Amino acid sequence: MFPKLRLPRTFHSVVVNKDAHDTRWANPDILPVAPEQQQYTWRAFFGYWFTIGMTTTVWALSSSHLANGLDAGAAIGGIFVGSVLSCLVAFFCSEPGIRYHLGFPMMSRATFGMYGSYFVIILKCFVNFIFFGIQSFWGGQAMAVILSAVFPSFAHMENTLPESAGITTQQLVGFVIYIVVFTSMMFIHPSKLQPVLFFSQIAIAATIVGLFIWAMSTNHGATILPPSKSISSSERSFRILQAISSVAGAWTGSAIRQSDWTRYTKSRNAVVWHQLITGPVTMTVCATFGVAATSAVKEMYGTAIWNPITLLQFLIKEDYSSTTRAGAFFAGVGFFTSQVSVNLVQNSVSCGMDLASLLPKYIDVTRGSLIMCLVGYLIQPWRFVEQPGTFIAVLNAFGMFVSPLAGVNCVDFWLIRKMNWKIPDLYRGDSGSIYWYTYGWNWRALAAWALTIWPCFPGFIATVSGKTNSLSVGWIRTFQVAWVVGFCGAAVVYYILCLISPPPGKPYVLEYLDTPATVIVGTRASVEDGKMGPAADVADVEKQDL
């Protein structure tokens, strides 16, 4: 089904001094993963996709589309199609990790060039800052629910912050506690996260199923309510496409960097089936539970509460009995652990690795993660989720910026490079590397990104500024389907540009060996002069025939 892993003769086994210094282009965090760290089995990837699929974001996103005018069937269908698309992107972008045990930064170098990868990584990190901040804010809200359930004084705490702050005193306290807990979790090495993911998936599954059962039993079932607002049939069609685009856009950000996780895998089969099955199934099930529970809550209380953590806060205020407090406490614990895990697997580790590739001599994964956390906390993420329409627009914006990157990366690796990389050249910052392109920039990739992002910009700006009435509906609808425009458009444009002007090393072909080589795990001293040099530079390392 899949091509056999066969490596060019350039990939000889290397004797490495792990205590050597880092360089401008390499450190151990962005070099191929050593065999002893390839610990991820099918359980790890099941936990990864289960953790991503059963989340506050999926529940809130499906319910927010109800509040935005879609009926239940359309909202759930949009979630399903969007999740399938994002998981297909994950499948295509995971191959470099499986094949070469290299992560997303190297995919960016191979496609956009040594310096062009800086643009990709900075753009991707910008998206991560916002998404991390949103997940952290919701984690802080979950902690506020826990404290409210345990301490009556906290539940009735007076808000001392002005309305302009956009956050209450309770929420701020919970947010600070989340920061403390999450920061301590960041020091766990990615290869050791399996137990954390396992505990999280048990906790969040019990929470979501329990909240769904509570809503159904309390309301004696649920009548799936009609849309909350009346919209025309043409508007409904584009709202469905917007639902698909928002879901695909939200998860393409993590899908494009799948190789950051698959580089730790023990086998291909441990990865593939969970990308193609576990991801879409868990997202769709969670979305269905969210839609049904939101409908039941609206029947009971007359308002559609699209965020499950907000629902817990509402229930505590409505009924502060021991039963409600106990239920809210355990549900809060489930959502809190989920938000910690989601930020670890979707944002912290990956963004830390990306930042490490910018300045590998000074930044490792942990330092990069700390930088991401600091920025994510300072951007006041609660302002991005005030209303369901704002939340959907934010997710569409993610797709607008990231989907062209995904389209270009997939075409370059699978169609242009034929899955062949010249690994040593990924760590060479000079014209001797086939990934140097034009002064370190692949103009084809940058042109494809720019040409497919600009049609979405007018609608994006109008939506964010709240001035959609001043712009043609065509521009607004283009933004509503930003993921489709970006991914498909960039893929086609990049492929055509590569046909017109083939990039260097298209594809890279040498004599092949049937046995995988020992991967590079660090830097070492040069054999002759004793100076430190990157192990990835074949001129500076001792090579051994396999």
UniProtKB/TrEMBL annotation:
<feature type="transmembrane region" description="Helical">
    <location>
        <begin position="436"/>
        <end position="461"/>
    </location>
</feature>
<feature type="transmembrane region" description="Helical">
    <location>
        <begin position="362"/>
        <end position="379"/>
    </location>
</feature>
<feature type="transmembrane region" description="Helical">
    <location>
        <begin position="196"/>
        <end position="217"/>
    </location>
</feature>
<dbReference type="InterPro" id="IPR001248">
    <property type="entry name" value="Pur-cyt_permease"/>
</dbReference>
<feature type="transmembrane region" description="Helical">
    <location>
        <begin position="276"/>
        <end position="297"/>
    </location>
</feature>
<feature type="transmembrane region" description="Helical">
    <location>
        <begin position="45"/>
        <end position="62"/>
    </location>
</feature>
<feature type="transmembrane region" description="Helical">
    <location>
        <begin position="391"/>
        <end position="415"/>
    </location>
</feature>
<feature type="transmembrane region" description="Helical">
    <location>
        <begin position="238"/>
        <end position="256"/>
    </location>
</feature>
<dbReference type="GO" id="GO:0015205">
    <property type="term" value="F:nucleobase transmembrane transporter activity"/>
</dbReference>
<feature type="transmembrane region" description="Helical">
    <location>
        <begin position="115"/>
        <end position="134"/>
    </location>
</feature>
<dbReference type="GO" id="GO:0005886">
    <property type="term" value="C:plasma membrane"/>
</dbReference>
<feature type="transmembrane region" description="Helical">
    <location>
        <begin position="172"/>
        <end position="190"/>
    </location>
</feature>
<dbReference type="InterPro" id="IPR045225">
    <property type="entry name" value="Uracil/uridine/allantoin_perm"/>
</dbReference>
<protein>
    <submittedName>
        <fullName>Uracil permease</fullName>
    </submittedName>
</protein>
<feature type="transmembrane region" description="Helical">
    <location>
        <begin position="481"/>
        <end position="500"/>
    </location>
</feature>
<keyword id="KW-0812">Transmembrane</keyword>
<keyword id="KW-0472">Membrane</keyword>
<dbReference type="Pfam" id="PF02133">
    <property type="entry name" value="Transp_cyt_pur"/>
</dbReference>
<comment type="similarity">
    <text>Belongs to the purine-cytosine permease (2.A.39) family.</text>
</comment>
<feature type="transmembrane region" description="Helical">
    <location>
        <begin position="74"/>
        <end position="94"/>
    </location>
</feature>
<keyword id="KW-1133">Transmembrane helix</keyword>
